[in-house]
Design brief:
This protein is mostly helical. It is built from 20 helices and six strands. Strand 1 and strand 2 form a beta hairpin.
Length: 461
């Protein structure tokens, strides 16, 4: 292949990852939490809040408390952090070859500009890089879940709930093992996913991420030798909880990541539920009981002009798989660290936003797919009317109530592997030795009306 000059300026057309290329508009909000610039900002926040906390610790007499004005000035350094600041940090990193140290040196520069030189010795005081990183990465994930992912998931579930209520009474043939089975309603089937998603959503909302601040090996050795009169365990707990995380007091150099892994697992369970639903909807479309609105100018196939493909649900299926694979790898990787630490988690954890990004692409595609769905009631009812054998369950249960010992066997002989008509089923029912009341109940029953409590279930979620 001939060599050529490569344009290294960024464009969505030159991006390696589809998240930064094809799907950039879909996931751009996540850049506020998972970009390199965002990571620097979160690290800067931790470093600044730590300096403020040290100044307010009454037993550290060597450092005078920062005034409220100075505290506001310092916090403004990270709340107003911008692209130019991020570029400066990367310039420093070119020399240090250490990303956290670059943030430390950058903060020292800012302190000089603000005439707060007295604080410079206290920047990153007694800390190891992982004290900063574990807090930054957990805060990034927590904020992205709270402000981006959960609102998107709730919006999706609200749409599904509306569909559940709207189609609560729309009877539909069930297929178990791919074979005609006891009918349900379309609304009730949506309700199943509403309930499943809500359970995992609640777990994600209630889950607490952990943070540590214990020095090079989780022993507060440097802290204790320099300032032995400070209760460093209490200080660290107060600091971590002030940031909005739960406190992990027993660690090695790294926070164990168990809580992060638990959160990843919840997202992958949600992925599994959405994958299950996407495949079901795909098959309902294939059966013809669901349709899709046509979009002017859109092409379904480059060669078959009649096609309206369920691409949104297929797209979701692929991206949910990618999300689960990435988060699943992180879940397995981050819990394991050789002895007091190794660095293999550092490069891996940077991809947590990628895992969430693919899940978010899937959610947005499912939303677009749901918005295009139409219900083919005529096809639904015709499908039901072609399968009167599904009433075999109802008939044999009535026979059991009438204490017929061979109830199941009678219906098995009549219906197993057979496609039955209304006339065949009614002829059989009329010949049964049961009460007239039960016989009339069965004769009034149709596949479309044999849905039990499905409509109530659908309307209850």
């Amino acid at each position: 292949m001939p060599h050529r000059n490569i344009d290294t300026s960024f464009s969505t057309l030159s991006a390696i990852s589809p998240l930064d290329g094809r799907y950039r508009k879909t996931v751009h909000e996540l850049g506020l939490f998972f970009s390199e610039e965002a990571l620097i900002k979160y690290r800067l926040k931790v470093e600044i809040e730590y300096v403020i906390a040290l100044s307010l610790e009454t037993k550290i007499v060597e450092l005078k408390p920062l005034s409220s004005v100075n505290q506001r000035t310092l916090r403004g350094l990270y709340t107003q952090f911008d692209r130019d600041g991020a570029k400066r940090v990367k310039e420093i990193e070119n020399t240090t070859n250490h990303d956290v140290k670059a943030v430390e040196y950058y903060l020292q520069e800012l302190l000089k500009e603000e005439k707060l030189n007295r604080l410079i010795p206290w920047v990153h005081f007694a800390l190891t890089s992982e004290d900063v990183n574990n807090l930054a990465y957990s805060l990034m994930w927590q904020d992205a879940i709270q402000f981006i992912y959960l609102p998107g998931l709730k919006k999706l579930n609200k749409t599904l709930r509306a569909l559940s209520h709207t189609y609560a009474d729309n009877s539909m043939l069930s297929l178990t093992h791919g074979q005609p089975a006891t009918p349900t309603t379309l609304g009730k089937e949506f309700a199943v996913f509403v309930s499943r998603i809500k359970r995992q959503k609640d777990a994600l909302e209630k889950h607490n991420l952990l943070g540590k601040l214990g020095g090079a090996t989780g022993t507060w050795s440097a802290h204790s030798i320099s300032l032995p009169h400070v209760n460093w365990q209490k200080f660290s707990k107060d600091f971590v909880t002030h940031l909005g995380l739960a406190y992990n007091p027993v660690t090695t150099q790294i926070e164990s990541h168990d809580a992060l892994v638990e959160s990843y697992h919840t997202v992958t369970r949600i992925n599994g539920i959405l994958l299950d639903m996407s495949k079901d909807i795909w098959m309902y479309i294939s059966r013809g009981i669901l349709g899709q609105k046509k979009v002017e100018g859109e092409i379904g196939s480059s060669t078959m002009p009649h096609k309206v493909n369920p691409i949104r649900f297929e797209n979701a299926e692929g991206n949910l798989g990618l999300s689960t694979a990435i988060l699943g790898h992180l879940a397995g990787k981050l819990q394991v660290s050789r002895m007091q630490r190794d660095l293999s988690d550092s490069t891996a954890i940077r991809n947590q936003g990628v895992g969430l990004g693919y899940a978010f692409v899937a959610i947005k595609n499912i939303m677009k797919g749901l918005d295009r769905l139409t219900v083919n009631e005529t096809t639904m009812l015709a499908e039901l009317d072609n399968h009167w054998e599904v009433l075999g369950e109802a008939v044999q249960t009535i026979l059991r109530k009438a204490q017929k010992e061979d109830a199941y066997e009678q219906l098995k002989v009549l219906t197993r592997g057979q496609t039955m008509s209304k006339e065949t089923m009614h002829t059989f029912i009329e010949g049964l030795d049961i009460s007239e009341k039960d016989k009339m109940r069965l004769l009034k029953l149709t596949p479309a009306s044999y849905t039990g409590l499905a409509n109530k279930i659908a309307k209850k979620v």
